[in-house]
DNA sequence: GATTGTTTCGGGTTTACGTCA
DNA sequence: TATGACGTAAACCCGAAACAA
């Protein structure tokens, strides 16, 4: 429940736009100061908006897609920056009832939940084909595709955004896998070289025993690293691989 | 050149929905 | 059959950048 102070925290706005399902351009943008502020403080705030939306050209909706289309139309409005009421508490309901017969609408989500559209196979196929040609669309291409698929341009936009994100995620996963394998290979190589080093140490000890008194510094340390590596890989390394 | 409004995008999150144990 | 966990994808939110007026 809201307290008295919150109840008084109301906003009044004017909304323009169309019923075509596209955004009105006020949803995003850091410099759209006035409207942006309203959006950021939408929670726990009652907002009244005068809706001047126009239905320019009612879309022809296929029978089996009817519910989803209507839902999306509602959804698209709800997703705009004017959704200022989130929960149907007593006060909100009262406000709704009060203003229900006027042109003022508060753009509340009527059912408290959004419907999720599942794209058909044909739609997905065409979208994928378009994505393979180009990963971003300009306005014209977006509208053309939306017309073809009987979707809203906003849906096309969202699909492409999500698709780009999925592509990037897959790419990152692949790169991660590659680095893992690379790391494993390097670890294997490291283990192999350590083993070879042990063998060299062992050989040098035997050699010193036969040829000379035990030196104070181990045999392998007396050679520069590069030389040691050379001996290791070319001479002894081969024999170790035969093991 | 600075300011403002608009559009688009990336990154992250939320949520509806399907699947499976 | 019911249900909860989980994965997926559509939709959403926000900040940043680019661009035009």
UniProtKB/TrEMBL annotation:
Q: Where is the composition biased (Low complexity)?
A: 10-30
Span-the-membrane segments of this chain are none
User: What Gene3D superfamilies would the database entry show?
Assistant: Homeodomain-like
**Annotation: DNA-binding region:** 112-171
List the InterPro entries hit by this protein, alphabetically. Answer: HD, HD-ZIP_Homeobox_LZ_Class_II, Homeobox_CS, Homeodomain-like_sf, Leu_zip_homeo
Localization: Nucleus
Grouped into one coarse class, the protein's main location is: nucleus
Disordered: annotated span: 1-38
As one GO molecular function, the record gives: sequence-specific DNA binding
Give the Homeobox domain ranges: 110-170
Q: Name one Pfam family in it.
A: Homeodomain
Sorted keywords for this record are: Coiled coil, DNA-binding, Homeobox, Nucleus, Transcription, Transcription regulation
Name a single GO cellular component. Answer: nucleus
SMART domains membership: HALZ, HOX
Coiled-coil annotated residue ranges, if any: 162-196
Family according to the record = Belongs to the HD-ZIP homeobox family. Class II subfamily.
In Swiss-Prot or TrEMBL terms, this protein is called Homeobox domain-containing protein
User: Which organism is the protein's source?
Assistant: Tagetes erecta
Instruction: Name the lineage.
Output: Eukaryota, Viridiplantae, Streptophyta, Embryophyta, Tracheophyta
């Amino acid at each position: 429940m809201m307290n008295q102070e919150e109840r008084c925290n109301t906003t009044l706005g004017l909304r323009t736009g169309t019923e075509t399902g596209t955004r009105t351009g006020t949803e995003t943008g850091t410099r759209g100061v006035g409207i942006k502020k309203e959006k950021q403080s939408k929670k726990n705030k009652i907002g009244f908006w005068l809706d001047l939306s126009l239905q320019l050209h009612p879309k022809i909706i296929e029978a089996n897609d009817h519910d989803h289309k209507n839902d999306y139309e509602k959804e698209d409005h709800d997703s705009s920056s004017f959704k200022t009421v989130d929960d149907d508490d007593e006060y909100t309901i009262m406000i709704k009832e009060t203003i229900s017969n006027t042109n003022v609408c508060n753009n509340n989500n009527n059912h408290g939940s959004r419907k999720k559209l599942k794209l058909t196979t044909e739609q997905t196929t065409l979208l994928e084909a378009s994505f393979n040609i180009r990963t971003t669309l300009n306005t014209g291409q977006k509208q053309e595709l939306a017309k073809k698929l009987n979707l809203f341009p906003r849906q096309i936009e969202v699909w492409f955004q999500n698709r780009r994100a999925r592509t990037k995620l897959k790419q990152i996963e692949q790169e991660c896998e590659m680095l893992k394998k690379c790391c494993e290979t390097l670890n294997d190589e490291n283990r192999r070289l350590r083993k070879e080093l042990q063998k060299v140490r062992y050989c040098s000890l035997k050699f010193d025993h036969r040829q000379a008194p035990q030196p104070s510094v181990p045999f392998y340390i007396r050679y520069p690293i590069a030389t040691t590596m050379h001996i290791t890989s070319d001479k002894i390394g081969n024999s170790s691989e035969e093991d």
